[in-house]
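thought: fold this chain, then report.
action: predict
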Amino acid sequence: MVTADNEPNMSVQTRGILSKVRQMIPPMLDKFHKGQLGRVAVIGGSQDYTGAPYFSAMASARLGCDMSHVICTPEAAAVIKTYSPNLMVHPLMRQTPADDETSKPDADKVSASIIEMLPRLHVLVVGPGLGRDPLMHDTVSRVIRAAKERKMPVVMDADALQIIQKDPGLVKGYSEVVLTPNVVEFKRLWDSLGLKDPGAAKETDKVEALAKALDGVTIIQKGQKDFISNGTVTLVNDLEGGKKRSGGQGDTLTGSVATFLAWRKAYLDGIWDRGDELAEDELLGLAAFGGSAITRESSRLAFLKQGRSLQASDLTDEVHGALMGLFGEVDGDAGPKL
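observation:
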């Protein structure tokens, strides 16, 4: 165990998983070109919610994704563009008009412009700042179906999880999906599928049961520990996080997982000399674990500095430090700091 105040505290099991995750992180090589290390798009952001997609997209960018996009409504786009010039913001989503139902945009037409972008992307994040507008939900449902046809990884959180409650078939059996529910969202998904409490057995029983009910979808059950399971393989992340539970920390998780999923593609494409090869069927779980680890370590580092005043933006500032603290420099012979 590592016990120094400025270093992460973890179990031997977590240390071993992180050593595998490190193998997925691409080195910074001169031969790489723009986009090879990740093209991620966050679909979310509405009139009332602009922070969540920003935090998700910025976590992805700060971790090392090459190109970070936000696909949102025009009202949200105008605001998000003021947050950072580093993000590519696309005002393609639409909300249901409040005053005239006859002028409601068509979900097929709205989704078509987003679906056209998919060949230029590696990973989608759906949910941050999405809200509960029915047109927004209908639009992302169509985009997710198109992503499935391309076998594109999709990370879903927040209000996007409500779509699954109503239509589990949208993701059921699609092994490229990662869900990141908190305690309340997990219970809603559990109840919507009519699952029964397995009783007091082992702590990962519920996440495994939910993942099995969705036929192999990967779930990150957030809590004091993060449980990550596809129903067959389960990983437990016991890294210490910060003690402040401010809103928006889950957006760092979605963006971080998305970047690791993009790196998974780069790993499978063999764009660098990988040395000891990881099994392809374990990479998605390792990507989910990596995103979870970065988030918990970012939270811990931010809490050490900010204490009870910690906000979601403080995690964004710590993402790179968390990467270095957990994995060290991957470009040379320095080796991991595990």
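thought: worth noting. Residues 35-96+103-327 form a domain with the UDP-N-acetylmuramoyl-L-alanine:D-glutamate ligase fold (CATH 3.40.1190.20).
final: tokens above.
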